[in-house]
Amino acid sequence: MAKHFLVSTGALSAARLITAFSQLLILPVISRFLTVEEFGLVSLAMVVVLFAQLFSDAGLGRSLIRQQHVDAQEWGAVFWLLFCVGPALALTALAAAPAWAWLHGAPELFGLVAALSVTPMFLSWAAVPNARLERDGRFPGLALIRTSAALAGMVAAVALAVSGAGVWALVAQQILLAAIQCGGAFALSGFRPAPLRRGVRLREHLSFARDSLGVSLLQTVQRQAPVALIGHQLGPAPLGLFTMSSRLLNQPVMALAGPMAQVTYVRMAAAQSDTGHVAALYIGSVRLLALAIFPPMAVLAGAGGDLFALIFSDPWRNAGLLFALAAPGIALESAAGGRLVSCSRL
């Protein structure tokens, strides 16, 4: 079991590390072809999209994983429910686009939100196949999907940025990322939904989704409220600096916390009847996470604005100062287990 845990975590961590390293490689390129304001506009557009994505799974995939036995009818019913939820979320985001653009006085936001509205649909359709891969312990397959999607999105973003596509380079990256993850989940999981039948009871899953959605909603509000406020009160340029610092701030954390939370959750679900073992798994994961995150965060924070100016050019210098100010809080949150809990909801 310990060997399987390390292999699973290692596979997902390797995928996240490859993604994080690739992100660090392409950001210096993109930052020279996109303005600070364009980064800010995409961040504002993503506020609407991320709230829509919050409902793309709503915790139903997590609920399926909790079940001791696979019921093909239940899994199929959840899939068909989410299959309908996906387009509804896309239409909701699309309907919100004009108001969001008007609120921020940025007409460009309408087109950005409209284009990005397809991403929650792809994520809804991929939720159940992803849950099957997790429940079966096929984490290397998940790692392959995520690595392939991330690399394809990043290559597209660089190519479009260099060709002068501007802000649409980042939009295309997000759409391609969601589409490849969806297709890859179906291809590798082998999941095929059972025909929908009457009488399938989903009350337990819906109750779990309700509780999970409440927690996820609070976490999303916590993360996106500063983005919306900065964009509305200060404008796209300051928000662009904030976004760049946040991207780099989250790379070392998400590369480790995400995979660890994903594997830990599956093991905790399997041992849910043994509270002592569940507690030991959680505490051990938190300690390992804190040990892995503190040193690199300290090094990056110490470099500050000079490193950002060197890598991204001088207009991004102040993003390094924001990074240095936020790094201690992120590190302490990780040590307290907050990042592990947050990532378990992803």
Describe the structure.
This protein is mainly alpha-helical and 346 residues long. It has one domain. 84% of the residues lie in helices and 0% in strands. It has 13 helices and no strands. The protein has helices at 2-30, 36-54, 60-66, 72-104, 108-116, 119-135, 139-162, 168-189, 203-233, 236-270, 275-312, 317-335, 338-343. The model has no long low-confidence stretch (mean pLDDT 80).
**Count of strand segments:** 0
How large is the share of residues in beta strands?
A: under 5%
User: In whole angstroms, how far apart are the ends?
Assistant: 24 Å
Order of helices and strands: HHHHHHHHHHHHH
Q: Percent of residues in helical segments?
A: over 70%
Helical segment count: 13
List unreliable stretches of 5+ residues. Answer: none
Feature tags:
single chain, 346 residues, mainly alpha, 0% strand
Topology overview:
Blueprint: H1 2-30, H2 36-54, H3 60-66, H4 72-104, H5 108-116, H6 119-135, H7 139-162, H8 168-189, H9 203-233, H10 236-270, H11 275-312, H12 317-335, H13 338-343
Helix pairs in contact: 1-7, 1-10, 2-4, 2-5, 2-6, 2-9, 2-10, 3-6, 3-9, 4-5, 4-6, 6-8, 7-8, 9-10, 10-11, 10-12, 11-12
Brief synopsis:
With 346 residues, the chain is an all-alpha fold. The chain is 84% helix and 0% strand.
